[in-house]
Structures are given as C-alpha cells and as structure tokens.
C-alpha cells in the first residue's frame, strides 16, 4: 500500500484510484456468484502453534535484496512444498528508485495445477524500505496476511490433500507477491513490481501445437476466477467493505460466515469485521495489474488502515490476536466453501470475452 494512497485515505475518503472504466459492464455480472449458507462453518480447528511459528519466520525486515528477504522467500517455498503445493518462483531483475537493479521473486504455490480454473489467494511478502528505520517489520503489512494464507492451507490440509486433490474444475493458488512497496514515492511505476510482472507473464498468449496446427490456448490469467488479496490485517477490529460489484456476492459470503460463526460462539468479541456495504472508493494495491486484465478482485484490506501503518509500531506488540484468530476462522471457512461447492466455471468478469 502506498503512502500516496494512505494520505488520500485519511483525507476522509478511501483512496479514489479508479483503475478501469468499470461501470458500463457491471450489469453483466449477475447471478453467477456462489452464495454462502450457514453450513460447514464450525468443523475446522485452529492451529495457532502453526500460525505463530509461521509469523515468527516472516516477521523480519525483508526489503527486496536484503538477507531477510531471501530468507523469507526460501521459507515460503519450503512451507508451500511442505503443505503439498507445487511451488514456483517467478524471478526477475528490475531497476528501481534508490537501489538501482534489484532481483525480485514472486512465490506461487498451486494445488491441482492442471485444473481448468483457479481460486487465487494473495498477499505481498516484501517489507517497505525506510531509510531511517532499517528495522521496519510490517507486521500488518503484510506479514500477518502471509501467515494467514499459509495457516489457511495448513488448517484445511485434511481436505486439500485428500478430497480436493486431483479436481479438474478448480485448483487453489497461493500467491506471495514481491515488491509491492514503493522504494521512494507510491506511483504506478514505483509500486507493485511483482504483481505487474506476474500478471504480464500469466497474460501471455500460450500457443500449443497438438496436431501440426497452432491453436490459441486460454491465457493463464483468464483461468483465475477470483483473486482474493489480503493486506493490512492484524490490528484491532478491522473493517472490510466490498470494493467491486462483481465480487459483492463473495463479500456477502464472508459477512454471512462471520455471522454464523458468531452465532455459534466461535468468534471472540463483538466486532463485525465484514461489513455488508460497498466501499466509497478503491485502494490501490497488488491487484491493479490483474484488474487491468479483467480478473475479478476480492480486496480484503482493512479500511481505515491500521493506525500503525508505515510506522515503527507496525510490529508484533501491536497485533490484536482475537482479531487475527477471528479472521482466520472466517477466511478458512470461506475458502473451504468456495472449493467445496465449486462444480463448474464461475465467471464473474466485468467484460465477457
Ligand atoms: Zn505498505
């Protein structure tokens, strides 16, 4: 998340970066969204020991090019492999402000890589460079979201490794973007380096030649049914609004799962995280290059941003564990329900091709 967008957010509105002229096509996105019902929301147990171990491993300064960055990159690959994902690294070099040429690496884990479509869950793992704060940790930004993704995979592993494995209709993709943070000032150019690279790579037209004739295969990016992007999570009592009309049904599922878990006494406190309302604006983030390629986006970013955002206080001491536990419980049920109920392709795209 960029400083620019933050300043705009705290000017009293959410950041107003409209990235596509979406309105004209929104009427096309009716009826195909899976709706949650209050079933199956209590059968998955927490694994807090795993969450804490995972967060400890990620919560180090990890500016692109630093030893901590390499360490976390390696940890993500090992963790994904250990959880039964096929792990890949999308490595590239790019010149950036302040540092010059840096090596970036998105880390992507997939179950059912040959499935027709994917549910993609994403966060960024780099931490922001502050010249005067080499120890900046970025606990909410985005060490906790990364730990949530791995913990979701861990707590659902009984399902993912048995019943879900070898499905052809849908696969699960975990994306850990590199280089989300600006090195100098947040602009379209100085931000989201990793997601720009990965979106471009996935949007390449793949040709295959099965019988002497070239055929145009679907672009891999078009196989992503929805990109669920987590960011700025871990502070007390976060609020998540719905940012995109075409994924509003999925956002409503989160609202309903939270409600069901609360009624069942499975959540701590009384804060409703998922608000059944449209946001008043958009927040610029790693989803931008995917949105520009017509990928449906479910943006789970706390607004207002945590008050520790981009300060030395964004550390473990200021995390709010009941809020994190609650998020984990709602989110793992959401992922489970999406995959469990999936039978045929879900098309939430603004523009149908
Ligand atoms: Zn940030």
UniProtKB/TrEMBL annotation:
<keyword id="KW-0808">Transferase</keyword>
<dbReference type="Pfam" id="PF04389">
    <property type="entry name" value="Peptidase_M28"/>
</dbReference>
<feature type="domain" description="Peptidase M28">
    <location>
        <begin position="106"/>
        <end position="335"/>
    </location>
</feature>
<keyword id="KW-0479">Metal-binding</keyword>
<keyword id="KW-0012">Acyltransferase</keyword>
<dbReference type="InterPro" id="IPR037457">
    <property type="entry name" value="M28_QC"/>
</dbReference>
<protein>
    <recommendedName>
        <fullName>Glutaminyl-peptide cyclotransferase</fullName>
        <ecNumber>2.3.2.5</ecNumber>
    </recommendedName>
</protein>
<comment type="similarity">
    <text>Belongs to the glutaminyl-peptide cyclotransferase family.</text>
</comment>
<dbReference type="GO" id="GO:0008270">
    <property type="term" value="F:zinc ion binding"/>
</dbReference>
<dbReference type="InterPro" id="IPR040234">
    <property type="entry name" value="QC/QCL"/>
</dbReference>
<comment type="function">
    <text>Acts as a glutaminyl-peptide cyclotransferase. Responsible for the biosynthesis of pyroglutamyl peptides. Might be more efficient in the conversion of tri and tetrapeptides in vitro. Might have a relative preference for substrates containing hydrophobic amino acids in vitro.</text>
</comment>
<dbReference type="GO" id="GO:0005576">
    <property type="term" value="C:extracellular region"/>
</dbReference>
<keyword id="KW-1015">Disulfide bond</keyword>
<keyword id="KW-0964">Secreted</keyword>
<keyword id="KW-0862">Zinc</keyword>
<dbReference type="InterPro" id="IPR007484">
    <property type="entry name" value="Peptidase_M28"/>
</dbReference>
<feature type="signal peptide">
    <location>
        <begin position="1"/>
        <end position="27"/>
    </location>
</feature>
<keyword id="KW-0732">Signal</keyword>
<dbReference type="GO" id="GO:0016603">
    <property type="term" value="F:glutaminyl-peptide cyclotransferase activity"/>
</dbReference>
């Amino acid at each position: 998340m960029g400083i620019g967008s933050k300043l705009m957010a705290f000017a009293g509105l959410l950041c107003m970066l409209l990235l596509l002229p979406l309105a004209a096509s929104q009427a096309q996105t009716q009826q195909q969204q899976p709706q949650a019902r209050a079933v199956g929301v209590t059968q998955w147990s927490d694994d807090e020991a795993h969450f804490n171990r995972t967060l400890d491993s990620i919560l180090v300064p990890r500016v692109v090019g630093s030893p901590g960055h390499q360490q976390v990159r390696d940890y993500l690959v090992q963790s994904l492999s250990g959880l039964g994902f096929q792990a890949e690294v999308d490595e590239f070099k790019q010149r950036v402000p302040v540092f010059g040429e840096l090596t970036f690496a998105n880390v992507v884990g997939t179950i059912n890589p040959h499935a027709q479509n994917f549910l993609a869950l994403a966060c960024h793992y780099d931490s922001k460079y502050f010249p005067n704060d080499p120890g900046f940790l970025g606990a909410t930004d985005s060490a906790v979201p990364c730990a949530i993704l791995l913990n979701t995979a861990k707590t659902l592993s009984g399902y993912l490794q048995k019943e879900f494995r070898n499905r052809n209709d849908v696969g699960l993709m975990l994306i850990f973007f590199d280089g989300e943070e600006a090195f100098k000032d947040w602009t379209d150019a100085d931000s989201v380096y990793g997601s720009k690279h990965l979106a471009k790579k996935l949007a390449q037209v793949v040709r295959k030649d099965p019988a002497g004739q070239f055929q145009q295969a679907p672009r891999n990016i078009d196989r992503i049914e929805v990109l669920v992007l987590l960011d700025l999570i871990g502070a007390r009592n976060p609020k998540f609004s719905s940012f995109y009309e075409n994924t509003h049904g999925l956002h409503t599922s989160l609202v309903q799962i939270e409600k069901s878990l609360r009624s069942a006494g499975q959540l701590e406190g009384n804060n409703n995280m998922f608000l059944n309302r449209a946001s008043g604006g958009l927040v610029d983030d790693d989803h931008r290059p995917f949105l520009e390629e017509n990928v449906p986006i479910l943006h789970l970013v706390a607004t207002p941003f945590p008050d520790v955002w981009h300060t030395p206080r964004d550390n473990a001491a200021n995390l709010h564990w009941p809020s994190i536990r609650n998020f984990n419980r709602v989110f793992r049920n959401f992922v489970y329900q999406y995959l469990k109920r999936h039978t045929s392709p879900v098309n939430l795209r603004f523009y149908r091709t």
